[in-house]
Structure formats: structure tokens, C-alpha cells
């Protein structure tokens, strides 16, 4: 039975277009044998678009993106310090704009140290965990304000908003992920000893949902202690569930220990399917190396695996993961390759 | 000229009393030759006290602590999961209670990889930086609340409060520290791209104060990116200044990369001298190994060096640091020593 996937592609800025080109190439190659057609529409969004038109994300953009089954995003953000972008904050306007508008309440970020990849840790052990970061609440809601701005009497507040509704749905998702994995272990990360209100909500919901998942072993770590284990014993983790800000911090750390941000994939997921989910490498637009075929497209390609999984094509997802793992295993023996050469090599591994 | 230092000692719970005993021993030994007398008063505070009396920190405790020149604290906190401590939160009540009551707006946490100490990083390089963490504002103010608690409609908020007054005084302190160091480099860590109100206050104050310190080179990192550098290139850091919560997270990570929480010292400082400052190891009370002479007193002893520095005895502080460094250098060749043996060895190095 043939199937057409309508994919909104946002190449973005800097190295975004280069890595997305490889990701789309891999997506086409891996789905060819499944009788799946990828119907891509390109969206010109990001710093370049803002500089041309003054728009970050219009209602028309949003409406048109929503007609797709999924979104693949490269990276957005202009050259740091560009005065024309001073108050624009493209990353926030666009990434958070899409995550909130499309209710991407699960921000899924796997962390694996692939064989052949060098970790900055001396003895990382076998590392293969997933961070389930909440995507639509916490300190990210934009609920802040300041009075007496610019004066010596300024007071600037930021409000972290946490709802039982919002926490429960992401916690449930995390339990499902944990239950589907071999080790079936879920770690809640928060700072319940200081953020007592948000913390007790998170802890209560985890305790309540845990009753429905008796096979999942649950534990808790304060976020500060969690960072210690990330560098001293990352093997201890299987699935982590945490709030938007803690998840932001922990997943960059996770990317660092597993060989760098060039390998870290992510999914911004609305599991209900009411909105298209968005898949993107965790890295930024790296304008300093843009347009030179220097960027590593692996994170974008691994994001394609997450996309395929989400769209109900787990076999194709697994094939991408295996091809990437194969490529990474041989990488240390190879000369430095261009962005396209890495994509081509993975396509070859897929189609051999 | 002889001098008497009135020291409030809070041994606390778990391993606290053991490590504090060594710290006091070292303090006595290092100041003996300076004609300084240490007049210690013991304060019975922590989980044990709470279980006996129901009090965490009374007004009388506070008033009496305030009559001292400085505070040395071991560690507080009962056995995790002890039902009698369920809602007590000793750490918060006592540590944060003292930090806020005594206006400890500078939380100073040095991070050094000492020669001879094994870092979990494969190639850490030379690491010697200081985190200046704000201690009296941010998400730690306890300004949160919840409605419809325990229901599916619960909303739990946490407010991060940041004032120009509070940010400026800690930023100034950080510039002073940076200016006094060889590399004269200060990194502001925040999340200005998301926490735009608090972030722009921090960024503005740093920009303004920087004008007065033309010899200090300033840069900025988002907290997520900072964690990456902590594991990939910690040598890049000299002085960091950051908010209370980011500082909490980053300093545990810093402790981890520099050989563990057993070596991490901290000062909770009120630089005005209007209140006694408090020095404590970053580690917790570790009830599982308490009373067995298994704890490493090094972090408590290094906290004594910070205390001496704060009290205007930098030579004595330097002697403690040198003795600890000597001890750490030989440590890998030695059998495992008891808590007291480590303290004794450092005293011997000091008095030789
Ligand atoms: C760019 C920024 C708004 C974003 C975030 O904080 O979520 C990024 O760091 C990420 O993790 O995707
Ligand atoms: C125990 C806790 C309240 C404390 C904090 O969060 O500040 C601790 O983690 C620390 O860093 O001293």
C-alpha cells in the first residue's frame, strides 16, 4: 500500500540548509523500498527570512505548516552580534513559537555513545538513555516581566508555570517509553527541595502514574546531582523525565558526553497527532562554518530516524540508526569528509 | 598582635561532624603560628536536632550565630526517605534559611583539578576556575504557590525574582575576583534567549559594571552551552557569574569534573561583614557512610581556606591550599585512610 508523507522542511540559517539536504536525501533513500513517497514543501524561515521581510513566523506560515504530517528543521539563528537581529531572538520566536503553537509537549532527546565515537569522558561505559523533556510549560512560558527597567531599582521576574494537565501527559509518555525499553527505568529530575510547589506537583504525578506501570522502576534525582551522574556514571540512566529548563540543560550535557552536539537528534512531539511534530538536530546554525560543507549532518539524519518512528515507520527508523552506527564505527579511520559525503555514505550503507 | 576569631561551628548530620572535626583541627594548626585564637561554639542544628526538638532554626539560634565572625558547617540532612522528615526539608530550612537570613549574596565555589586527582574527563587540561553564584535571589526566593493542589486541575508556579540591587552587588564581586586573577576573564552564564526579563537585567548590569573594569575580558554563555564547555573545554573558564539555580547546577557539575564532590569547597559570603559568612563543603550528609571514618574531609578543609581568606588571613589560606594540594598529589600512592588520618596528614604537612 503506497503512502505519501507531507513533510514541511525548514532548512533555516547557517549550516541548516546543508544538513537538511542530507537528511532529506537519507529520508528519500530509506523510504524508497517501503513504497512511501515524501512530498516536501520548503519553508523559508529564520534569520535570513527575518532580515528580508521582518517576519519570524506569520499566521500564514503556521497555517500552511499545519497542513503537513511532520516538520524537519535544520537550524535557525543569525550571526551572533548582528545588530539587525538584536531584539529579534529568532531561536525563541521560531523554535519556541512552533513548539508552543503546535503543542509539542514532548521534547524527546536520545543520548547514545555509539561505538567508534570518542566521548570526552575517560570511561563512559555503555550509554544509551532518552531524555523526555517537557516542551510547553515551566520557565519557558514567557510569563515574566520587569518594572523600573534600566534603573537601579529594576525588578525582573520569571514565572515557571506547571499544570497537572501538562505534567501528567509528558510523564505518561515517559512511562510508555520506559516500559517499551529493556531496562524499564525512569528517573524524575527536578529540584523538589527548593522549587517546592512545582517539585511536589511533578513528584505527585510521577507517583500516581507509576501505579499504572508496575514494571517500571522509578527513582528521583535533584538536577544538580543528576549532572554529577551524567559525567561519573551515565550508564545508570535509561529514561529521564524533567521540566523544560532542566531538560534544556541536561540534554546539552548529554550531547556533550556522547560525542558532541553534532550527533544529537531531537523530536518536538505532539503525540496526539493533532499537530505535526517537528524533528531537528540539537545543534545551532553555526554561521561561522556555514556554506563550506564542513557541518556534520549526522544529528539531522538521526532526527529523520525519530521522525520515521513517530510516523509509524519503525523499521525504516531502525535502518537509519543502523546505517548511522555503521558510519560512525568506521569514521575514525577516514579522512575528513564533506557534509554531502557523510550523507552519501549513509545512503550507500542504507541501500547496499 | 593577637586576634581571636569567634567561630560558630555547625557539625550537622551524617558525615558532617567527622569532616568538621578535621577542618577545625586544620584551622587550629594553621593559625597557631599567626597568634590567632579560634574560639569555637558548637551549634546543634540539622535533622538530628529537628527530630529531638522539632526546630530547624530558631530566632535564638540565629541571634546567637550572628555574634560570631564566621560559620563553619559540615553537612545537614537526615536519612533519605525517613518518614519523620517527610515535610521538614532540613537542607532548605537550614542552609537556605541561613543564606537568606545572613544575606549571603555571594556563593563562592572554586573548581580546581589538583595534580594527582583523577577527573572523569579524559583530557581535562589545566582547570582552575571560580563560580560566583548569586545566593539570595532567583528561583530560590520561595516565591511560589499552587492552586487546586492534589487535583487534575492543579497549577503550580515558581517565581524567579531578580533585582538590579541584588544582581549588581554579586556581579561587582565577580568582577573584583576576576580582576584579582591572572587571566582576568569573566563569563556570565544565563539563559537570556528564553528568560528574557531576568536575562536582560543580568546582561545589562554586567555590561554596565564592565565599563569600570576595562582589564577584565567578559563573555557570555547560555547555561546549556556552558555545560558543554564544562566537559569539553573546562580550561576556558576563569571566573563565572550566574544566578542561584544555574549556579547550583553548574557547581555540582564543576565538582564532578574536578574529582568529585569530596573535594568541593564553598563560601556563603556577605562581603559587607554585616553578617557572618558561612563556609561548607558542597557535599551532603551522606548518612550511609556516617560515623565510620570513611568520609573525605578535604572539601571541609578547603572550606577553611576560603574562611581564612574571607577573614583577611590569605597567607594562612594559601598554606592550607598548598598542604591539601601536597596531600592530594601523594594520595594515589597511599592506602585508603580514615577521615582523621587525612586531617592529620594535612596538619603534618602544615606544621612541617
Ligand atoms: C534556542 C533555544 C530557545 C532552545 C531551547 O532553549 O529550548 C535550544 O537551546 C534547544 O534546546 O532546543
Ligand atoms: C541542599 C540545597 C538546598 C542546596 C542548594 O540548592 O543550594 C545545595 O544543593 C547546595 O548547592 O548548596
Topology, element by element:
Two copies of one chain form a homodimer.
Chain A (H helix, E strand, L loop, with lengths): L2 E10 L3 H17 L3 E7 L4 H7 L5 H7 L4 E6 L14 H12 L4 E7 L15 E7 L3 E10 L7 E9 H17 L4 E6 L5 H15 L6 E6 H10 L6 E4 L1 H14 L7 E5 L7 E5 L16 H13 L3 H18 L7 H13 L1
Parallel strand pairs in A: 1-2, 1-3, 3-12, 5-10, 8-9, 8-10
Antiparallel strand pairs in A: 4-5, 4-11, 6-7, 11-12
Mean pLDDT of chain A: 96
Number of strands of chain A: 12
Question: How far is it from the N-terminal to the C-terminal residue of chain A, by CA?
Answer: 24 Å
Small-molecule components bound: 3-isopropylmalic acid
CATH architecture of the largest domain in chain A: 3-Layer(aba) Sandwich
Listing every helix as H and every strand as E from the N terminus to the C terminus, the arrangement of chain A reads EHEHHEHEEEEHEHEHEHEEHHH
Give, in spatial order, the strands making up the sheet with the most strands of chain A: 2-1-3-12-11-4-5-10-8-9
Q: Mind describing the biggest β-sheet of chain A?
A: 10 strands, mixed
